[in-house]
Amino acid sequence: MRHSTLFLLLTSSFSSAFYLPGVAPTSYEEEQIVPLYVNHLTPGLTEHDDQLHSVFSYDYYHPAFHFCQPVGGSKDVRESLGSIVFGDRIRTSPFELLMAKNETCKAVCEEVVFDARSAKFTNRRIAQGYYINWLVDGLPAAESRTERFTGERYYNPGFTLGTISDEGELELNNHFDIFIDYHPIWLPSTKKYRVIGVRVQPESRATSKVLDNGVVDCGENGPPFLVLNEETDTPVTWTYSVYWQEVPTAWATRWDKYLHVYDPKIHWFSLINSAVFVVFLVGMVSVILLRALRKDIARYNRLDSVRLDDLDGTSAAVEDGIQEDSGWKLVHGDVFRCPKSPLLLSILLGNGTQIFVMTGVTVAFALLGLLSPANRGFLATTILILYTLFGFVGGYVSARTYKSFGGEAWKRCIFLTPILIPGMVFGIFFLLNIFVWAKGSSGAVPFSTMLALVLIWFVISVPLSVAGSWVGFKQKAIEGRTKTNQIPRQIPRATGSLRPIPSLFLTGILPFGAIFVELYFIMTSLWTNKIYYMFGFLFLCYGLMIITTAATAILLVYFLLCAEDYRWQWRAFAGAGMTGGYVFLNALIFWATRMTFGGLTGAVLYVGYSALVGFLVFILTGTIGFFASWAFVHRIYGSIKVD
Ligand SMILES: *[C@@H]1O[C@H](CO)[C@@H](O)[C@H](O)[C@H]1NC(C)=O
Q: Where does the signal sequence lie (predicted)?
C-alpha cells in the first residue's frame, strides 16, 4: 500500500503538474489595473544556431535600452533573498493593463532616441539573443512555442528583444502584443477575474509614432522592420496592445503550460537507460564483492582455528596447503590508523554532510511539490535557509569524526568547520561578483544582499555549527574494530589502476554517469534562466548518484586493502569526490558545444561558477564515498577474529 502511494506521488511529480499552490490568488475587478513588473534581460539560446552567446544579464532599465520608466521613476518590487542571489531584479513599469479590457495600440511613453552608442550596445544584445522578462500577477510573460516532437503547445518564459533577419539585419522589437488569459470567478456579491496566462508577441515596426493630436500610430501599415542605426540617432516609439481572452483553465493549474519545459519522453528514456546500467553494474559488483568477502572471512577465521589447534610450532596451515594470511586481513593493525591531515578531512566531511542533508531535504521538498514555481525564488531561499540551519549537523559530524580520528586540536576544528569551506565559497562568489559588477551587468548581487548573507552566516550558521561541534565532542569517539599497531606497516608499491591518479578517475566516472543526463538539463535551465521543474527525475538521479558513489568507493577501498594499502580514508574521499571533477569537465564540454561567447569576463564567470559547483559536488560525493567506506571497513574488520 505504502509503495503505491509513493509511486503515485512520484508519477504525479513526473507529469510535472503537481504542486501545492504557493501563493494566494489575486482577484481583480473589471478594468482594475493589473500591474506589469519588469525583470532583468537574460541571454537565451538563439534560434539560428541554438547556442548561448552570453552569460550576463542586464537590468531592464539599463540606459542603453531606452525602455520607458514610469512617471516619477521605477521602484524595486520586494523579493526574497534567494531570488536576489539567483539574479532576479524586479521593478515597476509604466504599462497599463486593465482587467478584461481590450486596448489596441497605446504608446508606453513619448518617443525615445537611440544614439550611436546605445544602438551599438542594443544591437549586440539582439545578436546575442537576449530575452525580455516581464511578470504579470506573478506569471512570466511567455512566448508560445510548439514542442518539436509531440506538437504540443507550451509557454516558454520570456520573449526576444529583437530578431536577426535572414539578411543578417538586427531588428528591434518595439511593439508588444500582450495576450492575457483570464478566468472569471463568482465571489458572493461580485464577479471578479483572475490572471491565468500571459503571452507576448513582440514585433518590429519602423514607423510607429505618437501624432500631434495624441493619437498613436503603431506602424502596422508602414515598412515593417526597425533597425537601429549605429552611425546616427534613431527615434523609437515603444507601443503595445492588450488582448484579454477568457479561458476555462482554473487558477490552480495555470502553471502547467509553463512547466512543460522538456519532452518527458526523452527524459524517461535516458534516465531508464542510465538507471538500468547503474543498477546492473552496482548489482554485479556487490555480488562479486560479497562472495569474495564471505570467502575471505571464512578463510581467515578457519586459519585462526587451525593455528590455535597447532601450538607445537610447525604450522599446520602451511602443510595443509592453505596460504598464510594474505589480502586485507594483513592490514588490520593499520586500517584504523589516523589518516594524514585529520583536521582537514574532518572539516571537509562536516561540510559535506551539511550539503548532503541540505540537498536531500531540498530535493524531497521539491518532490512533494512544496517548492512551487509560483513562489519566485522560493527554491533558492529554501536552499539558503536549510544550509544555514544544517550548520549544526556539519559541526557535529566534523567534531565527532575528528575525535574518532584521535585529533587533539579541537578548538581549531570547532572554529574552522563553519569558516573554512563556506569562506572559500563565499570568497569566490564575491570575486566573481566583482567581475560582473565591473561589466555593468545586473547579475551582480547588490552589496546589501552580500552583507545580509554574511550576517546570516555569522549570526545563525556559525553558532549552530559551534553548538553542533560541542555536542559532537561530548560524544564518545567511534573506536576502530581492531587495535592499531605501534609501528606502521610497509606499504607495497601500487600498480595498475590502483595507482592514485588512475583510481581517482575510475572511481568518479560511475556516479557521474548517473547524473550526467539530468545535469545537462539543469545547466541549460540555469544559464538560460528557464524554469527547471523535473524534480521527480532529479530525485531519482540523486538516489542513483548516492548508490553509485557509495558502491564505487567501497570497491576502491576493498581493492586498496587487498593490495595491503591501508590509507583508504583520503583515497575514498577523493575518488568518490572526483565526480565533482567530472561535473566541472562536463561544464567545459558544455561550453565548447553549446556556448559561443567572446570576452574574458564571460569566460572567467563561467569557469568560476562551474568550478564552484564542481567543488561543492566534490565535497558532497567525497563525503558519501568516505562514510560508505567507513561503514564497510568497520563491518569487515568487525567480522574477523584477530589474535
Ligand atoms: C479581446 O480581443 C480578443 C482577440 O481579438 C477577443 O477574442 C476577446 O473576446 C476580446 N475580449 C474582450 C473582453 O473584448
A: 1-17
Helical residues (DSSP H) of 245-377, grouped into ranges:
256-259, 264-309, 316-319, 342-367
Going from the Cα of 186 to the center of ligand 1, the distance in angstroms, rounded, reads: 20
Q: How far is the CA of 194 from the centre of ligand 1 (A)?
A: 16
One-letter amino acid at 533 equals Y
Residues 465 and 504 in one domain: no
pLDDT tens profile 170-207: 999 999 999 999 999 887 888 899 999 999 999 999 88
Distances (CA, A) of 545 to 264, 289, 308, 429: 20, 20, 45, 26
Are residue 369 and residue 468 in the same domain, yes or no? yes
Pocket lining for ligand 1, CB < 6 angstroms: 100, 102, 243-245
Ligand 1 atom closest to residue 101's alpha carbon, by position in its atom list: 13
Q: What is the pTM of this model?
A: 0.85
* Distance of alpha carbon 137 from alpha carbon 241, whole angstroms: 18
Let me know how many helices (H) and strands (E) the chain has, helices first.
17, 21
The protein residue whose alpha carbon is closest to atom 7 in ligand 1 is: 245
Query: Which residue puts its alpha carbon closest to atom 4 of ligand 1?
Result: 243
The answer on 467 and 551 residing in a single domain is no
* DSSP conformation letters of 101-114: --EEEEESSS-EEE
Pocket test for ligand 1, best of 28, 102, 247 (most atoms within 8 A of CB): 102
Q: Which of 181, 199, 243 to mutate to test the pocket of ligand 1 (most atoms within 8 A of CB)?
A: 243
Q: Rounded to 5 degrees, what are φ and ψ at 216?
A: -100, 135
Mean pLDDT within 25-34: 90
